[in-house]
Amino acid sequence: MRIPYPGGFLEFASPQYFLLLLLIPFFLWMDRRVRKGSAIRFSSLEALKGTPAGRRVIWRRVLPYLRSVVLLFLIIAMARPRAGRGVEESFTQGIDIMLVLDCSTSMLAEDFKPMNRIEAAKEVAIEFVKGRQNDRIGLVVFAAKAFTQCPLTIDYGMLVNLIKRVETGIIQDGTAIGVALATAVSRLRNSTAKSKVIILLTDGRNNTGEIDPITADSMAQDYGIRVYTIGMGVKGYALYPVNDPFFGKRYVQMPVEIDEDLLTKIASDTGGKYFRATDTEKLREIYKEIDRMEKTKIEVKKYTEYRELATFPILIGLLLFLGELILSNTYLRKLP
Length: 336
What we know:
Blueprint: E1 2-5, E2 8-12, H1 23-37, H2 52-60, H3 63-78, E3 81-93, E4 95-102, H4 117-130, E5 136-142, E6 146-153, H5 156-164, H6 177-188, E7 195-202, H7 213-222, E8 225-232, E9 237-244, E10 248-255, H8 260-270, E11 274-277, H9 280-293, E12 297-308, H10 311-329
Parallel strand pairs: 4-5, 4-7, 7-8, 8-11
Antiparallel strand pairs: 1-2, 2-3, 3-12, 5-6, 9-10
Helix pairs in contact: 1-3, 3-10, 4-5, 4-9, 6-7, 7-8
């Protein structure tokens, strides 16, 4: 039986010893019989009342009960009282994730109102990072070349700031999907995480770079890296801003050309999935779906922590026994 109290519970590990409590009434009954059998009868004890000797005779009757209390505490100690509390230990198995973000000039297209593609991609990526826990996340940005904007880290604040600083034009223009994917694979190849993931977002076709996307795809497979690909842009045409030297900023219609076959193949080969984002809300839903599919594994180990309390009733019982021993041999001792 457990007796709850704030922060835990009290229980007895060996409650069968409480059967020994039946000895206490038997002990008191036997003591009473012995005292009656050995008593000397007097016609009256009135003369002893109020005298020190009379008071000692009356208090001597308490000694058997004191011994019974000693026995009670010893039985409680034998039953092993202990305080317990539930303890939980969490073991997290994080995921290593590399975000790969296209920052070519085509990402300035304004088909993700009220933002352009690059701003929408940054905003949703930041939301994704803030929603993760226990995972290491890094960032690769690319255009005609690719570089690591942030290595794998759990410092989400720093990563968010680096995502905010991503702009078009910081890299020579172009779309090197193969180089970008290979760069992210290189960052994950030595990872000891059980799950390694790349989320690659682009709005175009591979048109430059020393590494072919199919080669980078094979590299990801060799290292057991799952790749989720996202094609970003409306279907058909999108408004693209240009700076005219005579008329200033103006917009032109540009065709949206996303190599969906390639992105689908990369995702399928590595065990990931291809998504098409045509607006900001759709992009947000895509990241939420990836977030659900790539959940960090948390194992919770539950056990009970005990603290033995038998010492306390033993000490109380010994103190009472010592007190009974001293009284029975001094103030309450029997005369010969």
